[in-house]
């Protein structure tokens, strides 16, 4: 089986007047978790569905390991997908839902129970889908995606509805899968989760690429350096002691937010002025902040 | 023992696997059960009625009115009794065909189905084959019931079983064909109208009253054009074509031969199937 690289080039989808995806080009590498981020209506789901040949692009192309999805000899063996609206027949049990897929793909039926066990649905697998909670539906979706032990995983908001334990389980699973050399492309709105999980991020807005790179280059790429938080009983004295480059704004909780100088400079100034310090931390810009700045003005549901 | 990657590598999606998958889709939901019960119930009612009708035709033809002449033929009654349950049975198998497709959209399982088998033509083909198998299975069960009950009935009328007559045998065989063709119709209609409610209601209404509506329309047209020949064209209505095929056109004035009905029906099934497949190939699954 070839390398598992995803290549999207010049991909576009137009629905009447809406350019859902607009000339999007990017590559997703194997062995890494890539977060796919963007405001509501940015075109994430549309992009992923075009990648899986469920939606026909109006322009450009998307390939997995150099082939269109429909041209893969064993699609489920190569690619596993959990899509936003992936669903099962309400009156069918989760286990039977997987059996149907296994039969069509030619996988051994034993695989069904193994996957139910993997996602912790062994007892619930014999109950009807209509009684499943949101998190149980997501777990069934993951079991479905893992049936073929695929080289590439594509997940659209998989953490949606999972409990804290489930989110942690999913994080460990995806990290492990990437470590095994698989490609993991996952869309999400949970930015702190993505910061922990992802190696690379792709941010899109209005169907167009905003930025693409490792989490740290994207976060550090935004213009502002870190803010220093300082807490002291004698705020005015500390502010006066800081040098001219520093800008001081009072924080909402009584702490001072200092920009323009780093934490050691603030500490030294406090020592010189003989001011007591109760807290001194550098607040690193995080993915959430980078995301909001990069997509501000471009957000807005179309 | 857990499934090895080698086993997964060897796995291939064959035609048999796809058909097994489609059969599993049907077996693992409750709907087919209701259809089976409905069909069984209707067949028993139709059998009782047809036997009652035949009994009077043989024993008290006066009761059927002055025009009863044509209805005293044992062959006619044998064809009728041995295909009891056809009228609603055909509708039921058509509805099963429709549900095989529209369920995928209603429950959004089309995503999983097309991810597993991205070649959509192959998916539709396996649905068509499965539909025919199911239609035939239902037809075989119904026919078995009809044969058992009918043979007993004709014995009581001192007519043997009537199963040696070619027109009777032909009616029984064409009944089986009709069940297959109408399930194909169902699948095709489902691909043309993916909205479950719209597809089932349209198809059921057209099936139940389509023949009558068409008959009225053709009579009006024939009177207006002052041409008897127009009536022959009624066979282009699918449910009429089906009747022409299975009953040799009893009760339809100027009826064409049974094979004209068969050809018309086949033509519709092919056109609907091809158009439905082309549409499904283009459709965005979102
Ligand atoms: N079938 C469709 N018909 C018309 N417009 C559509 C269709 N599917 C998507 N769109 C439009 O395309 C745009 C992108 O939608 P998409 O679902 O890809 O966004 P998304 O990034 O997944 O958003 P979210 O974060 O809310 O899931 C939206 O403006 C949406 O309204
Ligand atoms: Mg989405």
Structure explained in plain terms:
The complex is a heterodimer of chains A (302) and B (286). Chain A is built from eleven helices and 13 strands. Chain A is an alpha/beta fold and 302 residues long. A six-stranded mixed sheet of chain A has the order 5-6-7-3-8-9, with helices on both faces. In chain A, strands 11-12-10-13 form a four-stranded antiparallel sheet, with helices on one face. A three-stranded antiparallel sheet of chain A has the order 2-1-4, covered by helices on one side. The two termini of chain A are 40 Å apart. The model of chain A has no long low-confidence stretch (mean pLDDT 90). With 286 residues, chain B is mostly helical. Chain B has one domain (16-282). Chain B is built from eleven helices and no strands. Chain B has helices at residues 5-10, 15-27, 31-59, 74-82, 86-106, 110-116, 120-156, 166-192, 196-225, 238-247, 258-282. In chain B, helix 8 (166-192) packs antiparallel against helix 10 (238-247) and helix 8 runs parallel beside helix 11. Classes of the chains: A alpha/beta (302), B mainly alpha (286). The interface between A and B is large, with 43 and 37 residues. Magnesium ion binds at residues 44-45, 84, 156 of chain A.
What can be said about this structure in brief?
Chain A is an alpha/beta fold and 302 residues long. Chain A contains eleven helices and 13 strands.
């Amino acid at each position: 089986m070839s390398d598992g690289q995803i290549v999207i080039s010049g991909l576009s989808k137009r629905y009447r007047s809406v350019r859902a995806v607009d000339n999007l080009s990017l590559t997703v590498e194997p062995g890494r978790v890539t977060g796919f981020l963007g405001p509501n209506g940015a075109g994430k789901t549309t992009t992923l569905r075009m990648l899986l040949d469920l939606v026909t692009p109006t322009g450009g192309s998307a390939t997995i390991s150099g082939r269109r999805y429909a041209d893969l000899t064993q699609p489920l063996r190569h690619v596993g997908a959990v899509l936003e609206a992936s669903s099962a027949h309400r009156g069918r049990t989760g286990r039977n839902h997987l059996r149907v897929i296994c039969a069509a793909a030619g996988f051994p039926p034993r695989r069904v129970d193994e996957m139910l066990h993997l996602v912790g649905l062994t007892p619930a697998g014999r109950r009807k889908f209509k009684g499943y909670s949101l998190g149980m539906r997501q777990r069934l979706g993951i079991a479905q995606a893992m049936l073929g032990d695929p080289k590439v995983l594509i997940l659209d908001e998989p953490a949606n509805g999972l409990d804290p334990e489930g989110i942690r389980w999913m994080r460990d699973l995806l990290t492990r899968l990437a470590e095994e050399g698989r490609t993991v492309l996952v869309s999400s709105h949970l930015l702190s989760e993505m910061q922990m999980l992802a190696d690379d991020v792709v941010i899109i807005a209005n169907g167009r690429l905003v930025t693409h790179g490792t989490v740290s280059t994207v976060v550090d790429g935004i213009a502002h350096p870190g803010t220093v938080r300082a807490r002291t009983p004698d705020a005015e004295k500390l502010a006066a002691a800081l040098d001219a480059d520093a800008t001081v704004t009072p924080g909402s909780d009584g702490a001072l937010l200092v920009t323009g100088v780093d934490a050691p400079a603030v500490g030294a100034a406090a020592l010189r002025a003989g001011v007591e310090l109760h807290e001194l931390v550098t607040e690193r810009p995080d993915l959430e902040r980078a995301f909001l700045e990069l997509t501000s003005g471009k957000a807005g549901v179309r | 023992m857990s499934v090895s990657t080698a086993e997964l590598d060897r796995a291939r999606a064959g035609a048999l696997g796809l058909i097994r998958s489609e059969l599993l889709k049907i077996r693992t939901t409750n709907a087919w059960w209701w259809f089976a019960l409905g069909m069984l119930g209707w067949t028993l009612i139709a059998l009782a009625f047809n036997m009652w009708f035949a009994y009077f035709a043989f024993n008290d033809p006066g009761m059927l009115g002055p025009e009863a002449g044509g209805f005293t033929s044992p062959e006619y009654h044998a064809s009728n009794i041995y295909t009891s349950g056809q009228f609603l049975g055909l509708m039921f198998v058509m509805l099963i065909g429709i549900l095989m497709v529209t369920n995928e959209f209603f429950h959004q399982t089309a995503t999983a189905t097309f991810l597993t088998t991205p070649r959509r033509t192959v998916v539709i083909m396996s649905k068509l084959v499965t539909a025919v198998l199911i239609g035939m299975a239902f037809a075989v069960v119904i026919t078995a019931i009809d044969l058992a009950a009918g043979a007993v009935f004709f014995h009581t009328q001192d007519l043997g079983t009537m199963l040696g007559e070619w027109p009777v045998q032909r009616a029984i065989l064409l009944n089986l064909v009709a069940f297959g063709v109408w399930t194909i119709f169902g699948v095709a209609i489902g691909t043309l109208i993916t909205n479950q409610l719209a597809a089932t209601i349209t198809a059921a209404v057209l099936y139940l009253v389509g023949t009558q509506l068409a008959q009225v329309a053709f009579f009006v047209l024939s009177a207006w054009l002052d041409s008897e020949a127009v009536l022959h064209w009624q066979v282009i209505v699918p449910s009429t074509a089906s009747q022409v095929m299975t009953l040799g056109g009893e009760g339809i004035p100027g009826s064409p031969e049974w094979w004209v009905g068969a050809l018309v029906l086949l033509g519709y099934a092919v056109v609907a199937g091809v158009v439905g497949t082309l549409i499904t190939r283009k459709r965005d699954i979102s």
